[in-house]
Amino acid sequence: MTGALLTDFYELNMAASYKRRHMEGMATFSLFVRTLPAERGFLVAAGIEDCLAFLETFCFEQTDLAYLAGKGFSAEELDWLADMRFTGDVRAVPEGRIVFAEEPLVEVDAPIAEAQLVETFLLNEITFQTTLASKAARCRIASAGKIELVEFGFRRTQGIEAGLAAARLAIMTGFSATSNVEAARRFGLRPSGTMAHSYIEAFPSEIQAFEAFADDRPAHVTFLVDTYDTIRGVAHAIEVIRKRRLGSVAAIRIDSGDLIGLSSLSRHMLDEAGLTDVRIFVSGGLDEHDLAALVACGAPVDAAGIGTRVGVSADAPYLDSAYKLVAYEGRPVAKLSTGKSTYPGAKQVFRDITGRSRLGEADQLGLAGESPPPGTEPLLQRVMEGGKRTRAAGEPAAALREARDRFEADLAELGAGALRLVHPDPPMPKLSRSLSTLTGEVHGMLGDQV
After folding, report:
1. CA–CA distance, 439 with 91 (Å, rounded to integer)
2. Where is 396: in which H helix or E strand?
């Protein structure tokens, strides 16, 4: 992946201006989320792996330079861009870790033009993937370990790459399988699928469709029972399951209607037929609130397909993310804009590991050069030095397992306020004394210049 033109035009204009003025000093940029969406008590860090792949291969191809030649860039500037590679250092929160507002997810130290040109890509990937991971995590919480979750969103995600990312992030946050076959192949996931209503409609009768599918896919068959009449569909499924002696390899899927009532009646019918091992799978525009309702009323649902609303994070499709210069040539800098002021200097997040507080409630936002306070660990880790990863890119499935382990460990420590699906109460990091002092000094100095 090269894609140096995957940037905003003003980034190129600024980079060229830096070059003309011989501004080649080291800059530190911090990528963070200012405030959480109203119904989010936490975020799940994601996207850094794709960012590192981009940074390692960053360059301007000849076709890129030819395009820019027609957009006002001089021959000298184009020669400079032709030789440019990303040579900086990157610190980041590992994928799967839970984070909160104002906590940097990524910090970049690089010559200022390089750091400026990669802003758009980093913001795009981190914002998008963190958004989806955080939404999927809420479904994991709502399922309460009682409903298996399958990612179903590929046909509704906003682009093919988005579909692949959504499948990976769902698995990272606790889903068990995906309908996306390419994602399953690429990331070592379990592909899962049932049948469509079109399959049922293509046969002369529903029961003939069920019989055909059972004959062709006998190892694991899920009958979609709501094409015509759900209860009649369940009766037809029972007839085929008993006739073919499918037993525990069979399931029924309900894709519409009153899922609570229909699943309860279906469970009763299956049990009366002696098919206590047959599972009930539900789907149909579900999200975390629907899952929570199913769990709360004890609906006999074994698994759920979750698609559109997670694949696009329907209720909160974006984050208030920012990528801001915090130091240049060793000089801490900040914004004073109303509602958008920033903290100066390269930073670190120190998290309590003593167990005396719930996750995030004792987080401290400090300066990168500070020693970790006793009983804390730094969240941001060095993942790139001199434009090269500090750790070779691993096998995708292994990296995903590690991210999932981090997520599960953090989720187990999250407090009740942050876990709430409605009106959550997210923790906010406290400032270290050093950062607080520096912020006062820099803001005061800049205020005097106005």
Report:
1. 21
2. helix 396-411
- At residue 448 the predicted structure's pLDDT band, cuts being 50, 70 and 90, is low
**pTM for this one?**
0.95
252 pairs with which residues across the strands? 223, 280
User: For the segment 172-197, what is each residue's pLDDT rounded down to a tens digit?
Assistant: 999 999 999 999 999 999 999 989 99
User: In this structure, are residues 253 and 150 in contact, taking their beta carbons and an 8 Å threshold?
Assistant: no
Per the prediction, the chain carries an average pLDDT of 96
Per-residue confidence at 449, pLDDT binned at 50, 70, 90?
low
**What ranges do the domains of the chain cover?**
9-132+319-449, 194-282
| CA 379/CA 402 separation, integer angstroms | 15
Instruction: Quickly name the fold that domain 9-132+319-449 has.
Output: nicotinate phosphoribosyltransferase (3.20.140)
Residues 6+ apart with CB under 8 A from 316: 37, 38, 39, 40, 131, 134, 135
Euclidean distance between CA atoms 341 and 364, whole angstroms: 18
Q: Do the domains 9-132+319-449 and 194-282 sit in the same CATH topology, yes or no?
A: no
Can you tell me the distance from the alpha carbon of 174 to that of 339, in angstroms, rounded to the nearest whole number?
35
CA 353 to chain centroid, in Å, comes to: 24
**Can you read off the two tokens belonging to residue 76?**
């000298």
Was domain 194-282 assigned CATH 1.20.1250.20? no
Distance between CA atoms of 143 and 148, rounded to whole angstroms? 7
Rounded distance, CA 10 to CA 8, Å?
6
Cα(414)–Cα(436) distance, integer angstroms: 26
pLDDT number for residue 447 = 73
Single-letter code of the amino acid located at 224: L
